[in-house]
Amino acid sequence: MGGVTMKRRALLITALAALILAAVPAPPVLALDEADRLWMVGERASADGLLPVARRALERLIAEFPSDRRVPEALLLVGRARLAAGDAADALEAFQRAARSDPKPGRPLELTFWEAEALFRLRRFAEARTAYDTVVKTDAASPFAPDALYGYAWSESELGRPEAAVEAFKQFAQTWPDHAQAPSAQFQLARTLVELKRVQEAVPFLDAVAKHSDHKLAPDARYLLGWARLETGDGRAGLADLRAFVNANPSHPQAPAARKLIQQAVVRYGDTSDLQEAYRSLMTRTPATPEGLHDASAIAARLGRPRDQEAAWRRLVREFPDHALGRRAALELASSAYKKKDWKETLSHARVASRSEDESVRAEAWLLAGEAELKLRNFASAEKAFQEASGIGGADAALRYRAMAGLGLAHEEQREWKAALSAYESVAESSPDATLRDWAKERAEAVKKRAAPPPPAEKPPVERKKPARKGGS
After folding, report:
1. pLDDT of 3-13, one tens digit each?
2. Is residue 175 within 8 Å of 197, Cβ to Cβ?
3. Alpha-carbon dihedral sign for residues 109, 114, 117, 119
4. Domain, as residue range, for 236
5. What is the tens place of the pLDDT at every residue in 355-364?
């Protein structure tokens, strides 16, 4: 504690001295002493991390004593202070002025590195990349080389060169695995690999970052690792990663997406107990969501529990009748009712599904409605439903021709022979289903026979009497 107190006291003294120096101009007779004091305060403040104080003192030294031998070093320190304050343009100006000095201040390649940093912050990425590359290629053992390679990799990424960025990040992670920036480099490497759709290669790097539990990127890495493992088919491990991520970071921006992935992964990879718990959780969640109820229906299907699946569908239709998933569930219920030969329930659910914005759902709903109306012998209503189904251009061709066949039946039942024949002939000519084509041909022939007028009845032959011979016998 004593050491910490002494350090704080020294920092306060340095700051106070700088403030006094900045506020009180020195008499001309003390000019040389003033330059010494400005340098002393600026250098010490810079070393102590009091960069605003260092900047004020050293900028005064540069402005008031331009010929001082310490000006080049002061320019280097001022540039770093400006860069830390977000003033990249003025920082670059200071570094470039210092670079024109002879000898140059700082350690070898130090000015080149800081110029690269300023250029990067100014989004002059091509120039920054060149400067970073100079540091690495000139002396790979330089203390600035690791950060220069890291900056080079980022520059390549910003320039839209992901393959080059991958190689640079990989080289950094392999060469300096214990560097403070190693987890960040590994994460950026993995994320770039994911963008390049090289997901399997990203997994070990994400795993390495996720193990640094105290690193700021560890939660993001754990989430992306779970996603990547699901993408590559390692479902159980991916599910475990996503659960660990949500449990440790329930308020993270990616937590909702992770929960959704967990639900989807449970359906595909969960064991029976996982599935049962997930179904119960989704069906009792308050408030319910259409996505949750849809996932519950999929889980019930995986468990082979049709009643539970139907229960989820019914809640979807009842609580979210206007949602896309609610209308999809209504179609499932209509199909299920049709299989049970419950024509009225088929119609009820098909009418809900027919309001869907999804053309395929809408077309299938109208087809089911038409077929149910046929069974109920409501031929005019069936005709209307089949017309709706066959007129949806975005629907599957096979479905549209099934509707056209149904339309033919509805016309035939109403003795509308010409319309029935037209529908059947259209199906017979163009349906992709060979069986349906053959059926339509048979119906067309039958309609032709029923529509043809009966042939006129043949009159019996008139028996003519032979004329009697004249004169007897």
Report:
1. 444 444 444 44
2. no
3. negative
4. 180-248
5. 999 999 999 9
